[in-house]
Automatic annotation (TrEMBL):
Composition bias type Basic and acidic residues, residue spans: 293-320
Family matches, as PANTHER family: RIBONUCLEASE H (PTHR46888:SF1), ZINC KNUCKLE DOMAINCONTAINING PROTEIN-RELATED (PTHR46888)
TM helices/strands, residue ranges: none
Organism: Araneus ventricosus (Orbweaver spider)
Region annotation (Disordered) ranges: 290-329
Top-rank taxon, per record: Eukaryota
Protein's recorded name: SCAN box domain-containing protein
Amino acid sequence: MAFLAKFRKVDLARLAEEMGLEITSEDRVIDICKKIKNSPDYEEEFAKGQLDVIVEERENEIAQAELARKEREAELARKERETERVYELEKLKITSAAETASLNSTRSEGSRNRREIKHLMQKFDSQNTDISLYLTLFERQARAAGIEEEEWVSQLISLLPLDLAQIIIKESEEQMREYTNVKKVLLDRFKMKPETFRIKFTQHQRKQGDLWKDLVFELQNYLDGWIEGLNVTDFKGLKALMIADQLKRRVPNEVKDHFLDEWGELIDPLVLAGKLDQYESVRGHRKINPVRMAERKPLDRARPNSPRKEHPAKNAEKNRTPVWQNTCP
């Protein structure tokens, strides 16, 4: 039995199964060896030959699995390289178009050297960076570097990770060349709606270690995103927006839920107040005239005939026992 101990447990278990022996997960190597040795079908030469075959098959299975894994990894790498190649081609296409347009201008060589904004900003990190703040910073850097707005898209794509760049590339060529359209696509991708900007503007806090000037920049960015998303363009509209926002802060949550679909778009305080008054009027009318089942008079029902009560005197006569029945013998 000594040669059996040289093999792995999995190989011994497989040999035992082929010999018709019952093996449990609790059996140790020595237990399996004893079962094989004590089997009436055990022959040492046969067992050695079978174990060699079992070991060879197991090693072949491992080799095939490893080969399949490497093939899958190679296929994934090939697809990734293909995706990157398509991305680079699209980026070169956009950059080439921007460069062709710039050749028609009268810029100097020094001005063209300043257009490489990727040397002035870090690439966008979707996990740790607010997209709206990043786009605002990008616009400021682009203006400071003297970059024409027609080139902003190509400059921005060079700063975005592959997944976001692919979202932009999937847009139509005409839409893709307009920075305002690209900016809207990115803001929609991160769900940066006017209501989101409003919440950030009213609730955003200064991060530990940041300057108060950083907080001013962030709040101003959120305020700009809020009012621009609602097309507020003058002081009158801004004043109406602030009054409407104060009204909303005073509305109970159950009333707010009734206007949830249009809540973010209600920026005219008079329109908002009219809807709230109408809602409270309907609710008040329901409270004044409710259908009260308790106030309804119950229907007169016919009373069931009760058993007829007899006169007490007659009952006494019935219950009276004759004297002759109680006399003793």
